[in-house]
Amino acid sequence: MSVPHNTQVKQDSDEIELGKLLGILLDSRWMIIAVTISFAIVGITYALLATPIYKSDALIQVEQKSSGMPALGEMGELFASESSATTEIEIIKSRMILGKTVDKLNLTTVVEPNYLPIIGKGLTRLQGDIPQLEITRFEVPDNKLNKAYSLKVLSSIEGTFELFDNNENQVLTGEVGKLAQNGDVKIYVSYLNASEEERFSVEKRSRLDAIQWIQKNLSVIERGKQTGILQLSFVGEQRKYIEDILDDISVNYFLQNVARNSAEAENSLQFLREHLPGIKSQLTFSEDALNKFRQENESIDLGLEAKSTLDVMVTIEAQLNELTFKESEISQRFTKEHPAYIALLDKRKTLLNERERLNRQIQKLPKTQREVLRMTRDVEVNQQIYVQLLNKVQELNILKASTVGNVRILDKAQSYSKPLKPNKIFLLAIFTMIGTMVGVGIAILRGYFNRGVENPDEIEAIGLPVYASVPMSDWQIELEKKQKSKKQLTVQDTLLAVSNPADLSIEALRSLRTSLHFAMMEAKNNILMISGPSPGIGKSFVSANMAAVVAKSGQKVLVIDADMRKGRMEKQMAINPKPGLSDYLSGQTAIESLIKKPGLEGMDFIGRGDVPPNPSELLMHPRFKQLMDWGSKNYDLVIVDTPPILAVTDPAIVGTHAGTTLLVGRFSQNTVKEIEVTKQRFEQNGIEVKGFILNAVVRKASNHYGGNYGYYNYSYTDEK
């Protein structure tokens, strides 16, 4: 089964695009390596200068049930509590716990030495001489909270200092170990170790801000599932400092837990103590009333039936009283719709019904016995209640004294010896990876946005044949460097065709000479105009060296610098450009005085002359046609170097006298659109562009993988 043609083309196109992408990366490999190394250096520098962050942790066990005293039975179960890990974590991170730590360790005062921006803190740490300042007490007005003050050391020996506000106004002066005060501002410096003129930033933040700072750096998690083991972690710059903070948080949480458990017993004790005096008064009143009645009515003994009823009545009253206590306790934990609360109410209703039945039975007894029975019942019930309350008070006192809480500190806070961050190896790897990605990204973007021509096929696609691809010459680059240092120059120092005839660029121009020979056979004259779309593309280089190559073949060549605006071809010819073309066109000199001999047999040169105010008008003068006709008759080839057509109209004027027109474009600089517009500009003026010369071609991997052809060195080498 054959593959469709369009599918094959698409696959080839994809392969070329991928190949070109690989080529772009290979071409930019040194840039990518440089960017990667730069980022790696930045990563190493950051890792060295970044302030180490240490981690301290502690372990706390939260037991499922508070210890209490099992011997107390229901009383012990009353104070048993179960709490989930999530609840305990939130308690630990609450303002109630953390606020005590803030107050004890004075965390509302923030002190930091003044360092150089960005790198100062890291450099000071690496030098090992970190200034130290400890402030035990610092008070400012509320409107000055969260505003930085500046403390300046006056004398490190005497321990004197000055305090400035954020506007650099002096607030007060003080001495270490003494309270300094000025109005509402008070400061007590307990320790100072810094050189004179050293400055510290001192800030008083609000208590809430300090608590939020702790919450931000504090982490509490449960180790394992349903273990009740809480791990507290705190991060900071100073190991001892974060250990103190974490230890204080652990102790505060432990103490509040104990206080919370004992508080329940204390509340019950307070309730019982409030009721004891009233019960005792009722008991005394009942006993007095019974004794008085007996004295008034002489001694009366109750019958067996009455005594039995009395015992039952006392038992019922005791149970009702017990239910009253239980209801006061259970109402704090449950609503009346809870099954336990409903059961308690049902039991009370049953006891009340039984008491009502007994009361009706008592009404059948004689009046005297009924009164004695009632009073005796009141005495015994009140006595039983009073004894019961006294017993509960003793039990609660024992329970309160034995409360130890259901929290235990397993491990005190301890900091790790190695800092938590920065992780130097990780940072180096990250920065190196980012550097590589940035380098690759720059290379791809640069390749994407670079629309300059790099492949002759792109030019031929617009209908313009490429006559030659002239490689970039390293030798020419060295020649240009030497020209800057030399004062006396010859064509040996300026023309590549003379200095290094075997250069690949010159070989390409020889190939152009051969192609040009056949191209000019049908031309109207032997005048060759060389132009291009923009300046700085090497038109003068091609014109001068092309003339030298033709001259070396035995032909007589005339080179004319027709760029009377910015022409600099006299540098390549190593001669004085005056008088030149502009002088002749303005009628100041004759043709014979224009001709200069660069020093290469068969090659003559006419410079641009003085810069005229009207180059285009001078080129339209009949003298220019006379010069062209004279050159065509007296030379085998006339090469006219012109300015860029997209900048000025001069090439369009010169082109009407030339039999052949070639365009020069620079590799990776001129776009296809520029070249196409240049071609159209000439055609609009009736000038046919014969071909194109791609100059300064660089061997690039993107061209190789993209399907472009290269060039090869085939010169003779002397092997000895």
UniProtKB/TrEMBL annotation:
Compartments where located = Cell inner membrane
InterPro entries documented for this protein: AAA_dom (IPR025669), Bact_polysacc_biosynth/exp (IPR050445), GNVR (IPR032807), LPS_length_determ_N (IPR003856), P-loop_NTPase (IPR027417), Wzc-like_C (IPR005702)
Enumerate the spans annotated as Polysaccharide chain length determinant N-terminal domain.
14-105
Q: Does the keyword Transmembrane apply?
A: yes
- Membrane topology note: Multi-pass membrane protein
- Domain named AAA: residues: 534-649
The organism named in the record is: Photobacterium rosenbergii
One Pfam family it belongs to = AAA_31
For this UniProt entry, which segments traverse the membrane?
30-49, 425-449
Which parts of the sequence belong to the Tyrosine-protein kinase G-rich domain?
367-446
Q: Which GO terms describe its molecular function?
A: ATP binding; identical protein binding; non-membrane spanning protein tyrosine kinase activity
Q: What are its E.C. numbers?
A: 2.7.10.2
Instruction: From the Swiss-Prot or TrEMBL record, give the protein name.
Output: Tyrosine-protein kinase
Reaction it catalyzes = L-tyrosyl-[protein] + ATP = O-phospho-L-tyrosyl-[protein] + ADP + H(+)
**What family does this chain come from, according to its entry?**
Belongs to the etk/wzc family.
- Example of a GO cellular component annotation carried by this entry: plasma membrane
Q: What is the lineage of its organism?
A: Bacteria, Pseudomonadati, Pseudomonadota, Gammaproteobacteria, Vibrionales
Give a yes or no for keyword Transmembrane in this entry.
Answer: yes
Q: Recite the UniProt keywords alphabetically.
A: ATP-binding, Cell inner membrane, Cell membrane, Kinase, Membrane, Nucleotide-binding, Transferase, Transmembrane, Transmembrane helix, Tyrosine-protein kinase
